[in-house]
Amino acid sequence: MNFSKGVARVSSSLRLGGSRAKCSSHGTTIRGAAAVAAVSGRCLGVRGGANRRLHATVPAAETPTSDTAAEKEASPVLSSLQAWMRKENMDCFIVPSDDPHLSEYASECFNRRAFVSGFTGSAGTAVILKDEALLWTDGRYHLQADQQLGKGWRLMKAGKPSVPTIQEFLAKHLPTQSRVAIDPFVHSASSVKALEKELGAAGISVAAIDHAGDKNPVDKIWGETRPAPPKSPVRIHKMAYAGETVKDKLAKIRKSMLEEKADVFVSGLLDEVAYILNIRGDDVAHSPVAIAYLLVTENGATVFIDEAKMSTEVEAEMKEHGVEVHGYEEALEAVRTLAKQGKKVWIDPERVNFAFANVVGEDDLIAKPSPVSMAKGIKNAPELEGMRAAHVRDGVAMVLALSRLERDVAAGQVITEVDIDQRATTARSQQDKFVDLSFPTIAGENSNGAIIHYSATPDSCHTVGRESMLLLDSGAQYEDGTTDVTRTMHFGEPTAEQKEAYTRVLQGHIGLATAQFPDGTPGFMIDAFARRHLWDAGLDYQHGTGHGVGAALNVHEGPHSISSRTANTTPLEPGMIVSNEPGYYKPGSFGVRIENLLEIVDSGISNETLGRRFYSFAPLTFIPMQKKLLDQTLLTSKELDWLDEYHEVVWTKLHKLVKDEEALAWLKEATAPVVRQP
């Protein structure tokens, strides 16, 4: 691959996130009881409702913008960036969501796009021109971006037929000889060729900012108010949960290096580094990772990290496994030095930033997928045991939180979305091995539930009452596993429209949960199982159906997913964890999502003629689904049987662990068989 100096590209997907993402994580991770206090507060009580029968709506005319630059006065931050562009003779500056490790969620000090635009969603790319600014984000965030974008911004609703990609827009609107600036540390190496090719055809060049002395203009404008880099201590991830030693993981990497004739392997993804080294940290909110790079050679390995984070115990553990500890800022120069020595350097171009690839000559660069990605995605036996145990404790916590919530709403208590967040966090924090949330809780009442990645705030959130429909998406990090679950519930009498929406989403959830598929099947081939019943009514949802989940690691991980995007051809394999979360969202009214995590298992069926085995799913999540929202006229007997059987397993797994009598009574009723309508 030709990684030309000073050139990078934003991929055609614009790194708008994985199959699905939660609200953006900001700030230092809050652990234990402190996490409970962080979500306390009251809010203004306003509500929306839904009364009509579910039907497919015809969208308004497609427009790429929510407002024009002329209608709004540019913010001081935007004006300062445009002044820098004029000074540097740049016609455009691209500000992605990414940090130097291409993380989905970034530490607060790297949230440049949010600082520049005011939009806090985890996925999106800002494009600054001399006289206007635009933000591209996908359908998960259109409503949120409409509400959050600052003055002088246009929202480009990526995925809409009339909305061009960033490359298409720039090629059309920038004159020949224009210069597009990027920070080489926040664009993947694989981004380079495409942007150079697409803009180069229009006579537009791409220039990488000189990063000597921290030259990113956003950081200069941010100044002293920019958050400091995190300093959280690194901790060892116990072998009882990891299931494999660091030495064994490094040996597997070196075996792959030998096969690819690589002298050096560079890892930049934070969860990948944490996985290889069996360490955890708190540098990114709700993601148990430490900011670091890792270099692996034939005879050694070096982790580049803020050495102040490494205790004597952790350093001794690294030394035992042949891993040296060097300063974080030394990583790029170490790769440059090895490249100058003629070493063959293996860099995953999708997972390592362009700055690192750019210091390796074309002849010495091995640009291939990381050998770690699949190993991390397929959990070993102790990792699976930890995930199963964590989900049982998580189920107990949610039974306590949801049962109390239903009782209090029925009693007429004033409860806000922020209160619900706090209650779920409190219940989880009381469980054994709790570390943190796995993402910011999404608690959306009525119209807020239609905002796919809604985040409640004390001064704008809704109260929950007997006419409320609530979408609650939440999860936790435990020492032994990571959870992610969504439940939708109504506190009074749901409308026919709400019942139909919920039931069609549930049918899709059941369709995927009961799917059986042959080995070698990628996620996109079974995505329609979750959408079929919505499609029958002319409906759909604008996010993926399933994402991978780390074992006591990031709540989103690859390499697999379940979505309509055909680019991900990674086959679904036994030992992988994937979410199952179809949804329906009616803007201004309500939202529905039902999510369980699933373990991919061997179904025990094989076809000798085809020479293939078949796989299926086993549930990891054990939390009741609300029966009052069912429209039984849509459900088959087989689908009702599935729900009864699922609830029987939930009862069996949890009832001996729920010590609160009222919560136990609620669980018994919630998991009782559905009363069949004649």
From TrEMBL:
Oxidoreductase found in the keyword field: no
GO function term, MF aspect, one: metal ion binding
UniProt key word Metal-binding: yes
UniProt cofactor(s): Mn(2+)
Occurrences of domain Peptidase M24 (ranges): 385-600
Species: Ectocarpus siliculosus
InterPro entries cross-referenced by the UniProt entry: Creatin/AminoP/Spt16_N, Creatinase/aminopeptidase-like, Creatinase_N, Pept_M24, Pept_M24B, Peptidase_M24_C, X-Pro_aminopeptidase_P
Domain Creatinase N-terminal: 79-202
Cited PANTHER family: XAA-PRO AMINOPEPTIDASE 1
Family: Belongs to the peptidase M24B family.
Record keywords, A-Z: Hydrolase, Manganese, Metal-binding
Domain Peptidase M24 C-terminal: 614-674
Protein origin, superkingdom: Eukaryota
GO cellular component, one term: cytoplasm
Protein name, per record: Peptidase
